[in-house]
């Protein structure tokens, strides 16, 4: 079985033509070349769509660039990154994490999806890692990428 890797939104954005400051877009390609199956929770699509529309607005665009639309279509088709349908345990754990004090529900969704899919989670979110450790959850599945300044 292939190793599995849940990507947080920062690592999916380059597939849609959005560069993320401080993150090497080649890191995901590196994991893919090592045979990882790349995953993104379907429940996180609203976050992704919000980020790309805000990026387009910041640039004064009246519509999304074709590259972004093609990237969304490829994501829906599962070309490079497979969308993971939510299961009850994904939602239950995400809500538990949120109620235990983690403020970002999407971070909770990424972590719970990775946990229940037997995957690692690629993130640049140190706050999530600290929270997971402090609450006694399995932090070994989190692959923290330090951002370049």
TrEMBL record:
Domain of life: Archaea
Domain PIN: 6-129
SUPFAM superfamilies: PIN domain-like (SSF88723)
Record-given protein name: PilT protein domain protein
Record InterPro entries: PIN-like_dom_sf (IPR029060), PIN_dom (IPR002716)
């Amino acid at each position: 079985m292939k190793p599995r890797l849940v990507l947080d939104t920062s690592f999916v954005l380059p597939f849609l033509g959005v560069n993320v400051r401080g993150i090497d877009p080649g890191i995901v390609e590196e994991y893919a070349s090592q045979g990882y199956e790349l995953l993104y929770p379907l429940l996180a699509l609203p976050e992704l769509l919000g980020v790309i529309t805000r990026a387009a607005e910041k640039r004064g665009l009246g519509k999304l660039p074709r590259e972004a639309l093609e990237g969304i279509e490829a994501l829906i088709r599962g070309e490079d990154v497979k969308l993971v349908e939510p299961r009850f345990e994904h939602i239950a754990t995400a809500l538990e994490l949120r109620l235990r004090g983690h403020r970002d529900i999407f971070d909770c969704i990424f972590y719970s999806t990775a946990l229940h899919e037997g995957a690692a989670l690629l993130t640049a979110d140190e706050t999530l890692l600290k929270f997971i450790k402090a609450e006694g959850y399995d932090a070994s599945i989190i692959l923290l990428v330090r951002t370049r300044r």
